[in-house]
Specification:
The protein contains 11 helices and no strands. By secondary structure, the protein is mainly alpha-helical. It is globular and about 50 Å long. Residues 259-268 have low confidence and may be disordered.
């Protein structure tokens, strides 16, 4: 996912961040449709509208994410994004562990934002917007998983709809269309950052369940930070590094309580 994001940053010199996000959406839609070929039943009824909402929210999250990483380091944005999923996970619970987990994430986000506000207020706002969209992605994703026979079919339909809804963003793709290499990279970002990780999410969730999956999510800010350093030369400051570690600790702390419960039964 973050290797694809690093490529996307390289494309920002040829297209706007929102335009690159639209190319990612287009590439994912083309590949998923060719792979899954959803049947007629998937294109009608309540499931269709749910898939459309899921796809548009997910694509919107990607647009906000790309606008944020155009202004802030990759690892910083991913750490701030985690405010969304952690709040969703902790919503409705009252245990001390949950309070501590949310507190750690909040402190981590504040530490990161405090460093970045002086440099790019807009970048921080985009990152927090992506966090809110990620929360929506989780809520809608659960509904898609429980109401659809195939989450990947819904993903294919959703990204197809999102490509159409967000088509005005194609104006920002600029010179990409005149360069086969740039166009291929843009579609490749869709494969690396959407098709591959989202398909793997389905496999991991079936095998491990949501609690253990959430523990693994704690590795994402670290992974993004490593990718940002290796591929983009982005070195985090001390407050950013401390804030990122606080976010990771908060995610792991929140997830550990659920992981201590009975192991989820395998799907029938």
């Amino acid at each position: 996912m973050y290797a694809g994001a690093a490529i996307a940053v390289d494309l920002f010199g040829h297209a706007t961040p929102a335009g690159v996000a639209w190319l990612r959406c287009l590439g994912a839609a083309v590949v998923l449709l060719a792979w899954r070929r959803p049947g007629r039943a998937a294109w009608r009824g309540r499931g269709l509208w749910l898939a459309i909402a899921f796809g548009v929210v997910t694509a919107g999250m990607n647009v906000l994410f790309y606008e944020a990483i155009a202004r802030l380091p990759l690892g910083t944005v991913v750490a701030m994004e985690f405010a969304g999923p952690v709040l969703v996970a902790a919503f409705g619970t009252r245990s001390l562990r949950d309070v501590l987990a949310v507190g750690l994430v909040a402190c981590g986000v504040v530490a990161i934002a405090d460093v970045q506000l002086s440099g790019s207020v807009l970048g921080v706002l985009f990152a927090l917007g992506a966090a809110a969209a990620w929360a929506g992605y989780i809520v809608l994703g659960k509904r898609v998983a429980s109401s659809s026979s195939s989450g990947l079919d819904s993903l294919a339909i959703g990204f197809t709809a999102a490509t159409v809804v967000l088509s005005p963003l194609a104006i920002g793709t600029g010179s990409v269309w005149s360069s086969p290499r740039m166009l291929l990279l843009g579609i490749g970002v869709g494969v690396l950052s959407t098709v591959v990780p989202y398909a793997l999410d389905q496999v991991v969730l079936r095998r491990l369940g949501q609690a253990r999956f959430a523990v693994l999510l704690a590795l994402l800010p670290v992974t993004a930070g490593v990718m940002g350093f290796v591929l983009l030369g982005q070195v985090p400051s001390v407050p950013e590094a401390v804030g990122t570690l606080a976010v990771v600790a908060g995610v792991a702390l929140r997830s550990r309580e659920e992981s201590a419960g009975p192991a989820p039964e395998p799907p029938g």
